[in-house]
UniProtKB/TrEMBL annotation, chain A:
Segments forming domain Protein export membrane protein SecD/SecF C-terminal: 411-578
Predominant location: membrane
Stretches assigned to the SecDF P1 head subdomain domain: 297-407
One Pfam family in the UniProt entry: SecDF_P1_head
Name of the featured protein: Protein translocase subunit SecD
The species this protein was found in: Corallococcus soli
Keywords, sorted A to Z: Cell membrane, Membrane, Protein transport, Translocation, Transmembrane, Transmembrane helix, Transport
Automatic annotation (TrEMBL), chain B:
Role, per record: Part of the Sec protein translocase complex. Interacts with the SecYEG preprotein conducting channel. SecDF uses the proton motive force (PMF) to complete protein translocation after the ATP-dependent function of SecA.
Record's keyword terms, sorted: Cell membrane, Membrane, Protein transport, Translocation, Transmembrane, Transmembrane helix, Transport
Assembly description: Forms a complex with SecD. Part of the essential Sec protein translocation apparatus which comprises SecA, SecYEG and auxiliary proteins SecDF. Other proteins may also be involved.
Localization per Swiss-Prot or TrEMBL: Cell membrane
Gene: secF
Name assigned to this protein: Protein-export membrane protein SecF
Superkingdom of origin: Bacteria
Sequence similarity: Belongs to the SecD/SecF family. SecF subfamily.
Main localization category: membrane
């Protein structure tokens, strides 16, 4: 028994304890907590003992096991692109007109996305062509035939626009789901034009479809700041219920109601708003996780909606000469007139930019704005960095565009599993895993006796390691994942069989117990290593190409193989060495 | 305890030719079968809608079918899942949305009947009818008209005035097939007598994407494993491992073909796992062959391979047996695709064991022989098969 053995043994004990420790949040979330609270990380955090790992390190159940909706939305970038080309066409026509270069009409071919400019007087076309191509660099010339010029959107611009359309749609979907109050949703981009959404615990796909599938609604509404104390009065006149957690906050002279619960806040303020006013909410973003709202704040706005996203023709984030981020917006002619009227009457007031009933921002109107172009300056006050302000400006531009140039989204895929089916699957799945595991354990103990028991210990540790590993990577356990779990345990036992067979062979060749064990492990090592690496390759490729449940399977397979390498090569060897070397045994029970 | 009490001395290698012949025959038959009969593609790959319903009262497949037909659903397949007392059924439909080639025409006519339209075209893949009308329209009216034509409408989108000033754009989004199923089965009832357990709904383009990605994943992993094997062993071992992998994948695909069980994303996972597992088995034998090549320098490759295969036979049977043992639980309690996964794995383990003996090793001999012949031709005097 050399020193190295003690080190290794200590490491194994440490790994085992660490594994058990790491499974505490998983145990609490699946066994201790009620099912309704299973996905509520805040509740889990409260219930966990102080010594436990953070609640985020827990094993999630896949939608197939707990019930819920998995959706893939396809963003119709083509329609959005067509709309955009039309708008640009009108801008070009107006530009040509303003510059007194001549008179053109713009027409868009919806199928091929080409923009055709036709000049009233073909003779003016040369000058128009030159000027337009120099100014509107997001178009390239396709063909020219006398008085008609065919333009095509520039390829790079199209790609950028397509990305942007998906980002906009994602932003809108996040906001909407957030409004629905679903905990632990997952919204992510899938490929170039799809968005994947997971809604655990939800059961109505039609409602979900409706929620995320409708076009974004952008509105410009005047903020009512005539009575800054309106919310403070509300609270003194009829105090809100305790559980709604509504408080009054004041930063910057306009006291607002604030609550982590949007529904409660709206329900409380709804009938208490003055005549002709609506109470809307604004999201206070989580400083760490940008798309999470940690609280909602109230806003009092006019019921009347003078201007909507329909009138907006463009929005872009840029940096001003003062080196301040800003958002430039422009309106179509009718919108420009309305905007001028609105800003004239509202100098000194604030105008709320509202997307899907969420106040995104409420800039102050400094002066009457004519000509249909406005600038929202972001300022640089406070402790935030330039990048953060610029990011804010970009998000605002995205919000404006999402309402102005809506890219319709359609459902590409929906998978919904009812909660009762999920329960049934998890029951059957774990039963299947337990039966498979038990059979293997009994077989190994009978067939290899003591060595088999050692392999069984390693096998159990392996199972725990897989679960802890999945919890660590915040992976999701799916039904195929359970199958992967069982299979990986089968493969892990394979390694022990390889070693034990090798030891038997060496014993049959007349080697001493010690030599046979050492030789058996050394010889089997590379075989086991190769066998694991090849399956790992398949696992990684599955992981990178698969989606949803298949990815869950791949994760389980990968974690399982790594754990199996450790348990079959290190753990069993240390224990076997103890029995053979430490006890100085003359025989080995294989 | 020991499975093979005595050292076996079976002459595997002499039977390699008939074995290879039969394997090739079966493989070809499966490939032809895939090309002609085809897999029973699940909704993942074929696109379409699958709804799982659990009835509250005893119901037969026939009754469900009749009710669906009475409700106006004709191309639905109904399949019972689980034991009879559960009254659960899978209903499968080809379409994703209620928009089909025929009813798109009636939708167009209905829209055109509402007023002057500049253009109407249906986007079948997304279940949307796009149109541009001369005057602004009320979404309610459009919805009513299209529903009157027999198509469920999820939403009418007002895309606003066209910038060119030549009309107003709208989109009519048809509702999904699942709605239609619930409506059809619930006809004439105050409250549906079933519970909706699962809805799977994959658009045709998504299905195609998923299928392509699945096939690509298979090819990539085979290629990556091949490189690894070639790098770790020797180039002459590579082709044998690859052929054995292909053989096993085709055989497992054969399971899905013959049983006509649903071929979906989980099946792809099963095939990929088989790729990994198959090469696992092959590697163990290759390892031994390599070891024995050093040990028995004077012997010919076929003899060495025979010794290696015989020496590892007990182990080969055992490892396959243990892995199969772990699958038994899944085979007994596994539902739906998990049962198929376990079954496919079982087939894969069996053929994987066979292929590492009869495919992977003979190919090494064959390549060795060819190399020897070539060397003999070029006049180099060298001991054949020396590694």
């Amino acid at each position: 028994m050399d020193r190295g053995w003690y080190w290794k043994f200590g490491m194994i004990v440490a790994v085992t304890l660490g594994t058990l420790w790491f499974l505490v949040p998983t145990y609490y979330s699946l066994v201790v907590l009620d099912r309704a609270e299973r996905n509520n990380i805040a509740v889990l955090e409260q219930r966990l003992p102080a010594w436990a790992p953070p609640a985020k390190y827990r094993l999630n159940l896949g939608l197939d096991l707990q019930g819920g909706i998995h959706m893939v939305m396809r963003v119709d970038t083509k329609t959005a692109l067509q709309k955009r080309t039309e708008r640009r066409g009108q801008q070009i026509a107006t530009y040509v007109n303003d510059k007194k270069l001549g008179e053109v009409t713009a027409d868009t071919d919806p199928e091929r996305l080409e923009l055709t400019l036709t000049a009233k007087d073909p003779a003016t076309m040369d000058a128009i062509q030159k000027e337009v191509l120099a100014t509107f660099t997001d178009f390239t010339q396709e063909s020219r035939n006398g008085g008609t010029l065919v333009l095509k959107p520039d390829e790079g611009q199209v790609n950028r626009f397509r990305d942007e359309a998906v980002d906009q749609a994602m932003l809108v979907i996040r906001r909407r789901i957030d409004k629905w109050g679903v905990a632990e949703v997952d919204v992510r981009k899938l490929g170039t034009d799809s968005i994947q959404i997971s809604l655990p615990g939800r059961s109505n796909p039609e409602q979900a479809k409706e929620l995320v599938g409708t076009t974004a609604q952008l509105e410009f509404r005047m903020v009512d700041d005539t009575n800054p104390q309106v919310f403070a009065q509300m609270i003194t006149q009829s105090p809100p219920p305790e559980e709604s957690k509504i408080t009054l906050v004041d930063d910057g002279g306009f006291p607002q109601l604030s609550s982590p619960n949007r529904e409660a806040l709206l329900a409380y303020a709804k009938d208490k708003a003055p005549e002709g006013r609506d109470v809307l909410t604004e999201c206070v973003a989580n400083p760490v996780k940008k798309n999470d709202c940690i609280a909602y704040r109230s806003f009092l706005v006019d019921k009347n909606v003078p201007l909507t996203g329909e009138s907006l023709s463009g929005a872009d984030a840029s940096v001003s000469q003062m080196n301040e981020p800003e958002v430039n917006i422009s309106f179509d002619p009718a919108g420009a007139r309305e905007f001028e009227k609105l800003t004239e009457a509202g100098v000194g007031r604030r105008m709320a930019i509202v997307l899907d009933d969420n106040v995104h921002t409420a800039p102050n109107i400094n002066e009457k704005i004519g000509g249909g172009r406005a600038r929202i300056t972001m300022g640089r006050a406070g402790s935030r960095s330039f990048e953060e302000w610029l990011g804010e400006a970009q998000t605002l531009a995205l919000v404006l565009k999402a309402g102005a140039l809506p890219a319709p989204v359609t459902v590409g895929e929906i998978r919904q599993v009812g909660a009762t089916l999920g329960d049934e699957l998890i029951k059957k799945g774990s039963l299947a895993a337990v039966v498979g595991l038990a059979l293997v354990i009994v077989f190994m103990a009978i067939y290899y006796r003591k060595a088999g028991l050692i392999a069984d210990v390693a096998l159990l540790l392996n199972g725990l390691l897989i679960l802890a590993g999945l919890a660590f990577f915040n992976a999701t356990l799916t039904l195929p994942g359970i199958a992967g779990f069982v299979l990986t345990l089968g493969i892990a036992v394979d390694a022990n069989v390889l070693i034990n067979e090798r030891i038997r062979e060496e014993l049959a060749n007349g080697k001493s117990a010690r030599a046979a064990v050492d030789q058996g492990y050394d010889r089997a090592f590379w075989t086991i290593f190769d066998a694991h690496v090849t399956t790992l390759i398949a696992g990684f490729i599955l992981f990178f190409t698969g989606t949803g449940p298949v990815r869950g399977f791949a994760t389980t397979l990968i974690v399982g193989l790594v754990a199996s390498l450790f348990t079959s090569i290190v753990v069993t060897r240390v224990i076997t060495t103890y029995f053979v070397h430490g006890r100085n045994a003359q025989s080995v029970s294989v | 305890m020991q499975i093979l009490k005595h050292k076996t001395n079976i002459d595997f290698i002499s039977k390699r030719k008939p074995a290879l012949f039969i394997s090739t025959l079966i493989n070809l038959a499966i490939i032809v079968g895939i090309a002609t009969v085809g897999f029973n593609f699940g909704v993942d790959f074929a696109g379409g809608t699958v709804v799982e319903l659990k009835f509250n009262t005893p119901t037969t497949e026939e009754q469900v079918r009749e009710r669906a037909q009475a409700g106006g659903l004709h191309d639905v397949t109904v399949q019972r899942v689980g034991p009879a007392e559960e009254n659960s059924f899978l209903l499968r439909m080809g379409g994703v949305t209620q928009l089909t080639a025929e009813n798109a025409e009636s939708a167009k006519a209905a829209i055109q009947g509402l007023g002057e339209t500049r253009s109407v075209y249906a986007d079948m893949a997304n279940g949307i009818v796009n149109f541009r009308s001369a005057q602004p329209m009320s979404a309610e009216a459009v919805k009513k008209a299209v529903e009157g034509a027999g198509i469920g409408v999820q939403e009418v989108r007002d895309l606003g005035a066209n910038q060119g000033g030549n009309g107003f754009d709208y989109q009519v989004v048809a509702s999904g097939m699942a709605d239609k199923v619930f409506a059809a089965l619930g006809t004439g009832m105050e409250k549906p007598d079933f519970e909706q357990r699962r809805v799977d709904y994959v658009g045709p383009q998504v299905g195609k994407q998923l299928r392509n990605r699945g096939v690509m994943a298979l090819l990539y992993s085979m290629f990556a494993i091949l490189i690894y094997v070639a790098f770790r062993f020797d180039f002459k071992f590579g082709p044998g491992a690859l052929l054995a992998m292909l053989h096993d994948v085709i055989m497992v695909a054969g399971y899905y073909l013959v049983s006509q069980r649903e071929f979906n994303l989980t099946s792809i996972a099963a095939l990929l796992t088989i790729v990994g597992y198959s090469v696992n088995d092959t590697i163990v034998i290759y390892d031994r062959i390599r070891e024995d090549m050093v040990k028995y320098k004077g012997k010919g490759l076929p003899e060495i391979i025979n010794i290696a295969v015989n020496d590892t036979l007990g182990r080969t049977i055992l490892t396959s047996g243990v892995t199969a043992l772990s699958l038994i639980g899944l085979l007994i309690f596994g539902v739906g695709e998990i049962f198929d996964f376990a079954m496919a794995m079982l087939v894969g383990i069996l053929v994987g064991t066979y292929s590492s003996v009869y495919i992977a090793s003979p190919v090494v001999i064959w390549l060795g022989e060819r190399a020897a012949q070539r060397e003999a031709h070029s006049g180099a005097k060298q001991e054949p098969n020396a590694a």
